[in-house]
Amino acid sequence: AATTTLLSTRGLSVHYGGVTANADIDLTVDAGEIVGLIGPNGAGKTTFVDAVTGFAKSSGEVRLDGERVDRIAANRRRTAGMARTWQAGELFADLTVAQNLAVAVQRVGLRALISDVFTGSRPPAGIIDEALAMVGLLGVADRRPGELTLGQQKLVGVARALVGGTRLVLLDEPAAGLDTHESREFGAELRRIAATGVGILLIDHDMSLVLDVCDRLYVLDFGRVIAAGSPTEIQDDPAVVAAYLGSP
Ligand code: ATP
């Protein structure tokens, strides 16, 4: 079957005053693909996610499944099938896992798709259960975040973005704080999610995670793509080594 290009940007640029945070970025993510976006602190990774999802003013093209979305508001991009996580993606401690997802659903205007998970009557919530099943957490729908491992909490954050038939997720440092073992488990879960056809853009500073799970990588430096390719190609790229270690 032909691959579907879920996300494609052309000439995507973001300026903050005199700072060029993103410069002319061309990037694609296919269905079923995990694409890594790496680069030093301040390289513009979060800004790229902001621009793609409609949280930063940008110029250039953003297409979701071929359709231009760069001029529509963030909430409409979300309902069209792209979702992001945030660097400080905390869960509501006093709500159950299912309720945490329900809040997200209500905020993005997908309310009509769920029954009321706040009344305590289960089983409700088709699309919530569907998202939890995708990350292997259906069994903890009625627990509170504090009762879960950190790895499970991180996956709830991913499930919150997957709710509502999301086809493209942009994950901003979703594995921060996980140890080596937890991070590997998390990566395996991302592979299972991608295997369902979801496209994933992954930002993370954990290089072993990124090199392990990504099909392709883009490297940003000062807002610009300085290299793109397979994990093996990227590791050997002199420009990448220089950006990370500093040129002599
Ligand atoms: P990190 O790895 O530290 O999260 P990053 O690669 O995600 O960094 P960004 O946060 O996208 O980098 O920042 C890119 C550049 O844009 C930086 O110079 C930053 O200071 C600037 N920047 C980001 N957001 C804003 C904003 N809202 N207003 C002004 N400048 C900003």
UniProtKB/TrEMBL annotation:
<keyword id="KW-0547">Nucleotide-binding</keyword>
<dbReference type="GO" id="GO:0005524">
    <property type="term" value="F:ATP binding"/>
</dbReference>
<feature type="domain" description="ABC transporter">
    <location>
        <begin position="7"/>
        <end position="247"/>
    </location>
</feature>
<keyword id="KW-0067">ATP-binding</keyword>
<protein>
    <submittedName>
        <fullName>ABC transporter ATP-binding protein</fullName>
    </submittedName>
</protein>
<keyword id="KW-0813">Transport</keyword>
